[in-house]
Amino acid sequence: MAKRKRRNRYRGPDLTTHLGLEVGETLTLEAGEFDERGLATSDYKGAPVTIAGAIPGETVSASVVKVYRDRIATLVDDISTKSVYRVEPECRYFGKCSGCQWQHIDYVRQLEIKRELVIAALQPYETLRDVEVEESLPSPEQFGYRNHARFTVGRGGKSGVAGFMNADSRQFVRIDECLIMDDRINETLAQLQGRLDRMTQFSIRVGANTGDVIIQPLLPAEIQDVPSGRQQYVEEVRGAKFQVAASSFFQVNTAQLAKIIDEIAAMLELDGDDTLVDLYCGVGTFTRLLSPYARKVIGIEESASAVADARVNCADVDNVEFIEAKAELAAQELAQSGLKIDVAIIDPPRIGCHPEALEALTVLSPRRIMMVSCNPITMARDIDALCEGGFKLVSVRPVDMFPQTRHVESLALLEG
User: Fold this and answer.
1) CATH classification of 148-245, choosing from 1.10.287.130, 2.40.50.1070, 3.40.50.2300, 1.50.10.10?
2) CATH code of the domain occupying 108-141+253-415
3) Which of 55, 109, 242, 382 is deepest in the core (most CB within 10 A)?
4) What is the pLDDT of residues 356-413, one digit of tens each?
C-alpha cells in the first residue's frame, strides 16, 4: 500500500520571531535528543532549535537555515565536542541535501536509535510499554539499496538540472550521484543530467534483481536516447516475479524485503493450513511470497492498478484471491460472512489503519496479526486499539529498510 503522508501545520504561538535571527547567523548549541524529523534538538534563548548533522551530546556551531514560528532550523558548521558515534559521511551532499539524516552516525548506533524510537512510541500506552522490542534487523546493504528515486528539476540558472530540495532551506541541490540509490538509478541520472528543460519533476524506478528501469513521466521529445513513459516495471523477489505499475507502491529496499519474509513467516508460525488475510496488500507482495506457507490467502486493496498487478503477480498461484475495496469495507464484509480467518497481515499507509478496519479485525478474531508499519507513532496507536479489542501485543521487531535515514519499519506480532 502506498505510504501516504499527511503534513501537520503548526498553529500555536510564535516562539521565534522576537529573537530577530537572520538566515546565516551562527549559534553555539548543545545537541539534545532527536525529534520526529531525525534531527538533534536544542534551545536558544527559550526557542526550540533543530540541528541537522548533530548527534545528541555534542557541542556544535550551527548556521541558521530557516526561522519558523515554532523552531529555528540550523545546520552544523563545526563540532567542538564530538560524539563517539560520529563517522565521516560518505556523501559529498550530506547536510546540503536533507534526504539522509544520519550518514554521520555509526551504522550500529543507527540501528540502536531506531529501536529506541519504537520503544518511545509504545511508552504512552499502558498495554504496550512493557512489551519486548527486539534488536533492529540490519539492512543487507547500507548504501545503494534504494530502487526508487523522485527528483526535482531546477529553475532559472539551474534549469534542466536534477536534484533535491532541502527540507528546511528549500534550496535546490544539484545531485549527480545519490549514494543510497541503486547504481542503475545513478547511471540513468547521468544520462539525463542537464537535459531536463521544461520538466519540474521525474522519477526513476528499477528492478534491483531484474535490471528493469522505468522513468516517469514521458521525457521531452528532444531526449530520444533514454526510454521513458512506460507504465510498469518488473521486479523479482525470492524467485517470484512482480509486475509493478508506475503509480503503485513497492518496498524500496528489495534485499531487505526478502529477509523480512522469513521473519514474518517465523513470527506468525504459519503451518500451511491457515487462511490468511492481507490488508492493504498493494501489488500482492506479501500475498504472493507468503502463499506457500498458507492454505488460502485473501488480498485486500483499494487501488485498481495495484490489484490488477497483484492478479498478474499471483496468476500462477492457486490459493490466492483478491478483493478490490477499501480495507475497512472488505474486512467488515469478511467479518459478516462468517469465514474463519486464522492469520492477518496489515501493512497500512503512514497515517495508519482506518478505525473501522481495526474494528473488523476484532470481529474476524484471527489467531495472530502481523502489523508491518513504517510509522511507529501510528503503529502504537493502532496496536493499542487492537489490544482494547481483545488482542495482546507479543513482540515488536524494528527493521531497517532505510539506512542512513530516520525512517524505521516495524514488524509487530499480536495474538488473540
Assistant:
1) 2.40.50.1070
2) 3.40.50.150
3) 242
4) 999 989 989 999 999 999 999 999 999 999 999 999 999 999 999 999 999 999 999 9
